[in-house]
Amino acid sequence: xxxxxxxxxxxxxxxxxxxxxxxxxxxxxxxxxxxxxxxxxxxxxxxxxxxxxxxxxxxxxxxxxxxxxxxxxxxxxxxxxxxxxxxxxxxxxxxxxxxxxxxxxxxxxxxxxxxxxxxxxxxxxxxxxxxxxxxxxxxxxxxxxxxxxxxxxxxxxxxxxxxxxxxxxxxxxxxxxxxxxxxxxxxxxxxxxxxxxxxxxxxxxxxxxxxxxxxxxxxxxxx
Length: 223
Hints:
Layout: H1 5-20, H2 23-33, H3 38-71, H4 75-97, H5 110-113, H6 120-132, H7 135-151, H8 155-169, H9 171-183, H10 188-221
């Protein structure tokens, strides 16, 4: 039952890293953490993000298991994996082509600047939405779900794999929350510099992540 778990972990780990380095959730949690009661509201966002990742990956894992059962072969699953990978790469290229240039590129979206005043329940909802309503997040989650659902057929290892993927995916957004809770005002200038740097390069990060991990999925589909 658990024998393929290590192989599955090796396959979805790069995708989990891709989720973890997603720039938009990280910028959002940095903005929230730098505001009033930042640690509490930031923790709510992290919790919502964890749940959102679980929902996305779990849904695709369940669909993949059903797909394999209906077809009686994993050949079609490899095709689905390749299609998801190519889709991720395509989205990455489109994102790069349509990226803002000049002064506009360094201007953060208005919804980000308003997060300093967001409530904890709304921060939770935002974390959930960033994991379930973002094209890049859905693509990475779909890839992981296909890998997990296509290789693990029993509920315990499948649930463990989905939870582990989500846990890896929230590592980076958890760090600023813990830093603010532990260090308070001393860490704020450093976090503010990181936030500004991420805002300037968020589109580039998104493009690289999608193309890189999309190619990983395409490569895995031929193994």
